[in-house]
Design a protein that fits this description.
Structural class: mainly alpha
Strand content: under 5%
Number of helices: 10
Shape: elongated
Radius of gyration: 20 Å
Distance between the termini: 18 Å
Oligomer: single chain
Helix content: over 70%
């Protein structure tokens, strides 16, 4: 389950609003909104994660719902969702770096084509940031690579990286799957 979906599930089962959760946790309503939409997620072990778990458990106790859940139970579930996303982010980071290094991709040109800021791409490459929509990001990178790297040598590098034969078509989808670790 995605972090935002789980958070929304807690809010619904508690019968509270996002504003109430924000007030109880000390996290701004804007950040709660970003968590709920999946635009952002707190890091496992962070103060924000702890504050959320504590607030959810306290609201559950106040409202006598959710079968008396504890902060530890909530924390474990929330961090489990983040761990899944972290694994996907690490896979994307590693595969993006492999692709960039293998083809000697100019990150500034990639940024211009994909409409991502070059510094954002650098943060994705170092694991300091994850794209809010990894599939959209991978699709944009794939489209850039297919349109920019068309020489026989480049295509050989791409096919070797992807483990596909020269006869296989639709490199754009294959690159996207490679980036996402599928």
């Amino acid at each position: 389950m995605k972090f935002g979906d789980l958070l929304n599930s807690y809010i619904e089962s508690l019968g509270c609003t996002a504003k109430e959760l924000a007030d109880r946790s000390g996290i701004s309503p804007a950040v709660i909104s970003r968590y709920r939409s999946g635009e952002r997620t707190p890091q496992a072990g962070s103060r924000q994660m702890d504050m959320l778990a504590e607030a959810i458990a306290a609201l559950a106790a106040d409202r006598k719902v959710c079968g008396g859940i504890t902060k530890e139970e909530v924390l474990q579930k929330l961090e489990g969702c983040v761990a899944e996303k972290d694994n996907d982010s690490v896979r994307l980071m590693n595969n993006l770096n492999t692709l960039i290094l293998a083809l000697h991709v100019n990150v500034n040109a990639l940024a211009k084509y994909t409409n991502y800021d070059a510094s954002s791409i650098c943060r994705i490459r170092t694991g300091k940031r994850s794209p809010s929509n990894p599939a959209e990001f991978a699709r944009a990178v794939s489209a850039y690579v297919v349109r920019r790297y068309t020489s026989a040598d480049d295509l050989d590098i791409i096919r070797e990286l992807l483990g596909c034969s020269p006869e296989e078509a639709d490199l754009e989808d294959k690159i996207m799957d490679f980036l996402l670790g599928k």
